[in-house]
From TrEMBL:
Organism of this sequence: Brachybacterium sacelli
A Gene Ontology BP annotation from the UniProt entry: methylation
Pfam families (UniProt xref): GCD14, TrmI-like_N
Keyword tRNA-binding: no
Protein name: tRNA (Adenine57-N1/adenine58-N1)-methyltransferase
Amino acid sequence: MTQQPAPRAPRRGLDRTGPFDLGDKVQLADSKNRLHTITLKPGGQFHTHRGVLEHDQLIGAEDGVVVEDNRGTRYQALRPLYSDYMLSMPRGAAIIYPKDAAQILMWGDIFPGARVLEAGVGSGGLTTALLRAVGADGSVHSIERREDFAEVARENVETFFGAPHPSWDLSIGDFQDVAPALNPDGPAVDRVVLDMLAPWECVDAAAEVLVSGGVFLAYVATVTQLSRTAEALRDHGEFTEPHGWESFVRPWHLEGLAVRPEHRMNAHTGFLLTSRRTAHGARALTRVSRPAPGSRDEEELTDPANDGFGGSTSEWGPQDVGERGVAPRKLKRALRDIRQGRDR
């Protein structure tokens, strides 16, 4: 007689608290902090070379409980945090790291009830953070040029929340074409968040859909992208002086008297740039400053060696910023891992 698979428990997503229940993901950490993530199933077992842990020991237990397998190996059981999920999610495109996602939520001023327009959805990591921040009364509309990236993002977001999110819409196409068509009656977006190759090409469309006082935020990988986007905002005339920065996170080793920085750290991942939309039709005040010698010299600005800085107009492709293509087999593997991981 062929054994039938165990029935799948209804999934309520990873974004919840309370005792462990069927279908929940649980992160097990041993005494050396080796991590294993399992999905609780009726009669399920977690096997290692050290022993077997029954899922029934966790079902109904409190988050944070310590359990033992049949050979006495102890595990701390905790529900995975969003940062755990973001770093471990199967991906096609690169993700925005937690340190940058946190900066985006703060300096992009993503508030409960906000209407956010996102472009460059990638693998869905930042989309998940935006949806958590806007809450039930807000909305996130994501635009992605590549349908294969969008499929991976959709699967990752729905895995995290346990179902399609009612506040999320996903469109396929170019930001410049899709964004203005979303709100034909006028500006109706509080925040625009861009993670793409050429955000300067989207400044006009962003200005069209942003409400007065709305925030424009771009995440870019290189200084040339940072410079070119800043100059595009200045040239538009209805954005405040752009502010750009990067962040570093340095973890520390904490053990008795051995308190020191870790040998490894997350250094540069990307640059963030923000600006505010002025009242529609109102020119932004021009910052009074003393420019650095040569920074606005026409001969220097047009020199081929400075292409990308100071608002150049040449066309760029992914190769110009060192962006590597994503092989179709990697995307297929990511989709397989997402779907299998829901029951693993």
